[in-house]
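anyone seen this seq b4? input:
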Amino acid sequence: MRLSSVIAGLSAAAVAFQGVAYAVQGPAKSLLRPPGAQGEGDFSARCIKCGKCMEACPYLALSPAPGDQGIAAGTPMVDARAQACRLCEDFPCVEACPTNALRGIEGRSDVRMGTAVIDEDLCIAFQGMRCEVCYRACPLIDEAITIDYRPREGDDIHAVFAPQVVPDVCPGCGLCEQRCPVSDPAPAIVVVPAGAQEEPYVPRRNGAA
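predicted toks r here
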């Protein structure tokens, strides 16, 4: 039997083992993964925690998941509030991955890290103040985030410049969350990682009850 065949078999077995381990244990909470992750199960099964994607990131946006994340500890994640993903045109993190844990990215439109959601109770734009920070920060401006100009209730003079997220376009990079001027008790816009439930993140989104 050729050595290459043995190595390929061992690699496949390792991926399968990691997949089973993830299904049993999994991360303690949903994590925002780098561009090119194809779902938490697939990513966790392939990622070998080599750190090459973190080393390749020119903006230091990737960091190892902390020790309380179970089997996911040490795998790359993005803390969008601290340092969001800049969606580099050449995606060095994807190129650096040796196991295809990050793959399938040819341009920004392919990235689906998560979806930004707006808490209208916290967003100052919905309170009548002019703020377009998240809109201006978005790398897909007028595509992933748009502005809905609407009359302010009970005010015939002023308007509301309400940011609106387009879920099918949003890459989930987190630049909007990083730049949001609201911080108490939380940013008014946050990224829900791909595959995670939205409800724990914000009580209302884009007018939804």
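The beta strands are 62-64, 76-78, 114-118, 145-151, 159-165, 189-193. The mean pLDDT is 85. kinda curious what u guys think
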